[in-house]
């Protein structure tokens, strides 16, 4: 993180390298995205900046096209060998909003439901055995202890369970186990 008291909180990438044999696998993008998320989470960063050699076409493509960095200025003779650098910035506000939205979704999913809301479901299944709930006929007969077809015939819960089990499809590993 850059520490300029008059500036908005932001991060700066000093160096990023991926071994030649591991390039073009998306590692640099993942590293940059993870670093950006950490800057947001830990320091409330609004943007991230970096410098890249004008001659580094691969890095320019990654930063500009894949990671949405914008060239903010050209810094003449930035490098020791006299080469110019592009100063680039990536706005992190959209990433921060997305991160916050995901956190809120996870928080809502993990929030325990009050017992009363679980027991008083709108389909009135309290007291329902539950084993036959996979059978569509039982959905229309919610609240009854056994499943009754429209013809008036009553099915025992074990009969319904057996009927649904016979439609289960074994995966290939189970099929090969039973074949041997």
From TrEMBL:
The keyword Lyase does not apply. GO terms for cellular component: NatA complex. Residues 1-93 form the N-acetyltransferase domain. Gene3D superfamilies: 3.40.630.30. Residues 120-158 have a biased composition (Basic and acidic residues). SUPFAM superfamilies: Acyl-CoA N-acyltransferases (Nat) (SSF55729). It comes from the Eukaryota. It catalyses: N-terminal L-seryl-[protein] + acetyl-CoA = N-terminal N(alpha)-acetyl-L-seryl-[protein] + CoA + H(+); N-terminal L-cysteinyl-[protein] + acetyl-CoA = N-terminal N(alpha)-acetyl-L-cysteinyl-[protein] + CoA + H(+); N-terminal L-threonyl-[protein] + acetyl-CoA = N-terminal N(alpha)-acetyl-L-threonyl-[protein] + CoA + H(+); N-terminal L-valyl-[protein] + acetyl-CoA = N-terminal N(alpha)-acetyl-L-valyl-[protein] + CoA + H(+). The keyword Transferase applies. Keywords: Acyltransferase, Transferase. It holds the Pfam family Acetyltransf_1. InterPro entries: Acyl_CoA_acyltransferase, Ard1-like, GNAT_dom. GO terms for molecular function: protein N-terminal-serine acetyltransferase activity; protein-N-terminal-glutamate acetyltransferase activity. Residues 104-180 are annotated as: Disordered. It is an enzyme of class 2 (transferase). Its EC number is 2.3.1.255. Belongs to the acetyltransferase family. ARD1 subfamily. This is N-terminal amino-acid N(alpha)-acetyltransferase NatA. It comes from Eleutherodactylus coqui (Puerto Rican coqui).
């Amino acid at each position: 993180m850059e520490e300029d008291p008059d500036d908005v909180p932001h991060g700066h990438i000093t160096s990023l390298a991926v071994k030649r044999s591991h390039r073009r696998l998306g590692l640099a993008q993942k590293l940059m995205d993870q670093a950006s998320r950490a800057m947001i989470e830990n320091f409330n960063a609004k943007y991230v900046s970096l410098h890249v050699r004008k001659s580094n076409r691969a890095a320019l493509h990654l930063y500009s096209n894949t990671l949405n960095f914008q060239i903010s200025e050209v810094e003449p003779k930035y490098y020791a060998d006299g080469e110019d650098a592009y100063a680039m910035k990536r706005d992190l506000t959209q990433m921060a909003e997305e991160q916050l939205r995901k956190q809120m979704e996870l928080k809502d999913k993990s929030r325990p439901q009050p017992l009363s809301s679980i027991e008083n479901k709108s389909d009135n299944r309290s007291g329902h055995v539950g084993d036959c709930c996979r059978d569509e006929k039982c959905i229309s007969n919610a609240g009854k202890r056994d499943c009754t077809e429209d013809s008036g015939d009553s099915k025992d819960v074990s009969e319904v369970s057996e009927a649904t089990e016979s439609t289960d499809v074994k995966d290939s590993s189970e099929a090969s186990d039973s074949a041997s």
